[in-house]
Specification:
Blueprint lengths: L8 H19 L9 H8 L3 H7 L3 H27 L6 H17 L2 H14 L5 H25 L7 H16 L6 H9 L10 H16 L5
Helix pairs in contact: 1-2, 1-4, 4-5, 4-6, 4-7, 5-10, 6-8, 7-8, 8-10
Length: 222
């Protein structure tokens, strides 16, 4: 891809979107930790200094991508919850269905989980105060949308909805780091299966953790 010098706001937005789309495509091939600014610049067809005119760092690119992917995912999650949670079922049944839908949805989006896993320890570093402020405002808005979805299907969660949503995303990020073992660890598991007893499979591990968190926040049945 070759760009001419961006002279209008529309052209700058096209350039910015191309950078994000390229980073997104890279994440379909490699984990967050392997995405570099040099490779991103090469793939998008811009000098590294040009990329830095639109994003102050690699982390800033990935933070924006995290926000974009979260918003897109929430649109899909709304449909998945509507299809997977019985509107008139008992609270315990709806809680289990909610945990099942959420864990299945997140486990199918390993890139998003990887981004959540890198958020606190990596992506929110090496960025300016204004970038972090913008990201946190967007994150809060996304959490509000997510919380509203869960209150719709599980109104008993009440004011705890956003806390539950935050915990679920943090758990997904943490578990994702253990669900794709490197080749050396896979070799160990293959040669000594007894060492694989606690190997993490993302979806069932996430479902258990999400359901446990959810049940802890719901009122006890009389």
């Amino acid at each position: 891809m070759t760009f001419q010098r961006a002279r209008t706001e529309e052209q700058r937005e096209v350039r910015r979107r191309a950078i994000l789309d390229t980073a997104s495509a890279m994440l379909d091939e490699m984990p967050v930790a392997e995405v570099t600014l040099n490779e991103l610049s090469r793939r998008v067809g811009l000098a590294k200094t040009a990329v830095l005119r639109y994003f102050e760092s690699r982390e800033a690119v990935l933070l924006d991508l995290l926000d974009d992917r979260t918003a897109s995912w929430l649109t899909e999650l709304e449909r998945e919850l509507a299809e997977g949670v019985a509107p008139d079922g008992p609270m315990a049944v709806r809680a289990e269905q909610t945990a099942e839908v959420l864990s299945r949805s997140l486990a199918a989006r390993t890139v998003l989980c990887d981004l959540f896993g890198a958020q606190g320890g990596v992506l929110e570093h090496n960025v300016s105060v204004e970038s972090v402020r913008r990201h946190k405002r967007t994150s809060l808005a996304n959490l509000a949308v997510m919380g509203k979805l869960f209150r719709r299907h599980l109104p008993e969660i009440g004011e705890h909805a956003e806390v539950f949503c935050l915990h679920a995303l943090l758990i997904a990020g943490a578990l994702s780091g253990y669900s794709a073992p490197p080749p050396s660890l896979l070799a160990v598991y293959e040669s000594e299966p007894e060492l694989a007893v606690h190997r993490v499979e993302l979806r069932p591990a996430l479902r258990l953790a999400v359901l446990t968190s959810l049940l802890g926040l719901l009122p006890r049945a009389e």
